[in-house]
Structure prediction request, 397 residues.
Amino acid sequence: MEQTPAFAGLGCTDCGSVAPFDTVDGCPACGGRLEPTYEYDAVDPADLFGATAAGVGHWRFDALLPFPRTAAITAAEGSTPLVAADSLTEELGVGEVYIKDEGRNPTGTVYDRGMSLAVTAIAGHDDPEALEPLALASTGNSGQSAAAYAGRLGLRSYSFVPSRTAFSNKALINVHGGEMRVVGGRYPDAARAVDDQLATDYYSLQEFATPYRHEGAKTVAFELYADLGALPDVVFVPTSTGELIAGIATGFEELVEVGAVDETPTIVAVQPTSCGPIAAAFERGLDDPEPWAHPDTIIGELEVTDPAGGAEAVDALRRLDGEAVTVDDSDSLGSATTVARHEIVEMGPAGGAAAAGAWEWHEADAFSGDETVVLLNTESGAKSPDVLRSHLMGQGI
Ligand SMILES: [Zn+2]
Prediction:
């Protein structure tokens, strides 16, 4: 498997030893979590943003990815538009508001970025078929994405989803050729079912089990810099598993490492009031979020009670001097429908949380008035229009 010049292997976050790219099940020395590492001195900003980095999709940033674009399993994920939201700019009273519309990825979700990296790594194994089946638990979007990218390699995949998962996710997991198990209950039940129901060994595509899913999320940071010519001041990120916060924060830090920028922006994790383990841990000064005992959010994508990347997300927020806010479901859904009405972009319910978080900041007078603000829309509104429409009907519209 060809690897990029700057990639220095998978480093163990516990003992520091370095393992090859195709290591499975954590650090061979101590079992710790593995993280892609790079020789940053070998990367020039021009490698990322100059003429050689031209192309479509996030693989144009392969100078800071483990594998070259020529090896990528890709459907041109990334290169999503940064849409100026003029009404929101006026209403929030800031310099500029942009929506980074991740709904326009191949399967309509930001998770396509990481899945493309994870499956590219699988393709580089000596015998990818020996890894079958690939499996993960998902609230919906990542399961759909996994089925799509695994299908590209012709590998069998299982997505375990809770029964509440959106119909579009369930249907398209099968349409992409993936196998699906619908598990009664909530997301933790689906997560437990992977081990309970799969009789064989499997290759885990779970976030943070593979070192590559949150790694793929970091290209959001690179694209924001490429499109704005500078970093934004504040980025609102809907938060569930922690992989987006951890990944995007790493992307901002790497831009400092290679000398493209001097400082990182403020990153804000937004969670539902009724399921906010990462926000609660951040507010209480805990390193590791406690599982959320009684989740009750309409937004299934954000109902992750015991996030696999919870500690990583909290750590990233602290490193970047970030913030965390919680928002009511009605505000998230109301924000998503307001954006659809006035800004054209179809935000999913989870994406609406980013807009609701920005409104919360506005109401708390937390903006100074000249910021460039980015709202990350993590999913297409076309995935669950019923949830959005129900919200309007509930208001008599
Ligand atoms: Zn180790």
The longest strand covers residues 266-272. The radius of gyration is 20 Å.
